[in-house]
Amino acid sequence: MAAVLTVLTSNDVVILTLTPVIYHFSKATGIDPAPLLFLEFFTANVWSMALLIGEHMHPKPYAGP
């Protein structure tokens, strides 16, 4: 779900939207939220590479002087 939402929006939107949802459901079911949150952050950041606006740290081709 994080991958699809990241490609459609951006990783910041996905992380800010899904973090409370994942935390709430993991606490309600008694699961440790840390691995799920790590997976969400990792997935959103990896899939943001498909977007030009997804991450500001993408390497840009050098255009020269």
Give a verbal description of the structure.
The chain has 65 residues and is an all-alpha fold. It has one domain (2-50). Helix content is 63%, strand content 0%. It is built from three helices and no strands. The longest helix has 19 residues, at 11-29. It is elongated and about 55 Å long. The N and C termini lie far apart (42 Å). The model has no long low-confidence stretch (mean pLDDT 77).
List the helices and strands and how they pair.
Elements: H1 2-8, H2 11-29, H3 33-47
Give me some keywords for this one.
65 residues, mainly alpha, 3 helices, 63% helix
The amount of beta strand, in percent, is: under 5%
Taken from the alpha-carbon principal axes, the silhouette is elongated
Rg over C-alpha atoms, rounded to the nearest angstrom: 15 Å
Low-confidence spans: none
How many distinct helices? 3
Give the beta-strand count.
0
What is the string of SSEs from the N terminus onward?
A: HHH
Question: What is the end-to-end distance?
Answer: 42 Å
The largest β sheet comes out as: none
Structural class: mainly alpha
Helix content: 55-70%
Mean pLDDT: 77
Number of spatially distinct domains: 1
